[in-house]
Amino acid sequence: MSARGSSRPAPEADEPPWLDPLERRAWLTGNALLLKLPALLEQQLQRDADLSYFEYLVLAVLAEQKPPRLRMSRLAMLTGGSLSRLSHVAKRLELKEYIVRETDAQDRRSTNAVLTPSGQRKVLDTAPGHVAWVREIFFDHLDSEHLQQFVAVGRRVMPQIDPGAEIAGAPDR
Q1: Which of 9, 104, 131, 153 could, after both became Cys, cross-link 110 (CB 3.0–4.6 A)?
Q2: Could you give the CA distance from residue 163 to residue 173 in angstroms, rounded to a whole number?
């Protein structure tokens, strides 16, 4: 096996490192998913819940916490956003009264995002339609074998993309 984990031989030193036809199809398919899926999720959430995809992700991650509170730095990591982007979104979510930000009691230099009861209701009201849409555009086209393969691919690739597995490292439930 080559260093990249495949049985294909490494290209010769003077040969361009092009993708083979199967790698190219897989790469272009992955790119299409990465580009098109977020836009579809964004459209549904804007239309049905007046939320951006990132706003919904922030609320959903907070809703999964017991209690529904996280340091802003940790929330940024879990949502795949920068602290700057999260701060802008947090301001919008505060104006809608879905979250509040408060100083961390243990570390006064840190700020926590806290889901409000109104924010919890927003997640609970939004989730059924969002889940239905995710099923329609993604899961309804896959059987359990496809899903297992998808998870296996993610587990093989994510350590190179996110070594700490902070975004996609949720345990099996």
Answers
A1: 104
A2: 21
